[in-house]
Design brief:
By secondary structure, this protein is α/β, with parallel strands linked by helices. Helix 4 crosses helix 5. The longest helix has 17 residues. It contains 5 helices and 8 strands, in the order H-H-E-E-H-E-E-E-H-H-E-E-E. Helix 3 links the parallel strand 2 and strand 3. Helix content is 30%, strand content 25%.
């Protein structure tokens, strides 16, 4: 909700890509929306719910709502996105001696899930972002090595990357 409130000022002028994304999120079940304009001026809007799924009803609701947000004459197509589950994530931490590692591991898993939950449809999951999420949890974490994924993860155009704490292994 805070993100929507922050984004509101950029959407006061309708018919921008930011405004179209904001308008798509006005649908009750829409959590993530990404608008992309191709060279021909056609706008594609990809939308999903909080779990990274979509259905025909959601797509229809968004398409109807976007009539109020798009410029006249602009073709806007709405496509439901799908979930790309990033599993497993394997990393090792270097911590100070005497630190409660069990609590740190739980906090690191929560931070990584939260970081990946901020990704929009089609956005890349960077290994460096996973590492930064882990390192920023506590000053007692001295280092972090991400083993898996071995490279940055690029989803398909209609996919939204997500993971769960259970899919993260920390040593």
């Amino acid at each position: 909700m805070r993100e929507r409130a922050r984004a509101y000022s950029t959407t006061l002028r309708r018919a921008t890509l930011a405004a179209i994304e904001h308008g798509a999120k006005e649908g009750a079940a829409v959590y993530s929306a990404t608008a992309v304009e191709d060279a021909g001026g056609i706008v594609m809007v990809y939308c999903t719910d909080v779990d990274g799924n979509s259905n025909a009803g959601m797509v229809a609701d968004v398409l109807l709502e976007l009539d109020e947000w798009r410029a006249a004459g602009v073709v806007v197509n709405v496509v439901g996105g799908s979930l790309y589950t990033l599993t497993p994530i394997i990393l090792s931490l270097q911590v100070r001696v005497g630190v409660d590692t069990q609590a740190l591991v739980a906090a690191v898993k929560t931070a990584i899930v939260a970081r990946l939950d901020r990704l929009k449809i089609g956005e890349t999951a960077y290994r460096s972002a996973i590492q930064a999420a882990a390192l920023n949890v506590n000053v007692n974490i001295l280092g972090c090595t991400v083993t898996t994924p071995a490279a940055d993860v690029v989803p398909g155009d209609q996919q939204m990357i997500r993971t769960t704490a259970g899919d993260i292994q920390v040593s």
